[in-house]
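chain below, 217 aa
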Amino acid sequence: MSDTQETINYHLLKHRFRGYLPVIIDVETAGLNAKTDALLELAAITVKMDEQGNLLPDQKCHFHIQPFEGANINPEAIKFNGIDVDNPLRGAVSETIAISEMFKMVRRAQKEADCQRSIIVAHNAAFDQGFIMAAAQRTNAKRNPFHPFSTFDTATLSGFMFGQTVLIKACQAANIPFDSRQAHSALYDTERTAELFCYMVNHLKALGGFPHIVTKE
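prediction:
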């Protein structure tokens, strides 16, 4: 049986990640247990491709979130992220609003890119995914766009590419400015993680490490 070659346009986002739309996520929480500890802050950024097939950050959303009823607030977690849960100036919204609005943004971007589904990209992604999925379940969110268990973990990817697994050190290795004073803000960390993910994808492309021809038998 002879081989045939099919050319796939990897300048289209839908082809680059097998039909998945990467969405960069970061959460700030009141503990480590997604089922019992409060989700306090959430940010998400979608991506797009330019005409040269380079990946770029695109749409973003950001929410301060009210602890769900009965949520645990771990003082050590609050000390770490510096969030004043009771401060009215936070402008916090319910989990229902935050999750549903974020899902709407993701589904819209997914449709625009002609992708079949979305996939969470995060630094130590299992943590962020766990809180997103737990909140979606608590709020009975409809039409969850994310793959139920697969993720792209930038800690793993940056460890592979740079030998660095800490976000600030990975950004430094990629020459991405990082202000440690703004770390542990969901929006700031999401913006830096999005830059890091795009840099790694584009750098691989520039090195010729991604195929443009798929061979089928």
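The longest helix spans residues 186-206. Residues 53 and 106 are 20 Å apart (CA to CA).
thats it, cya
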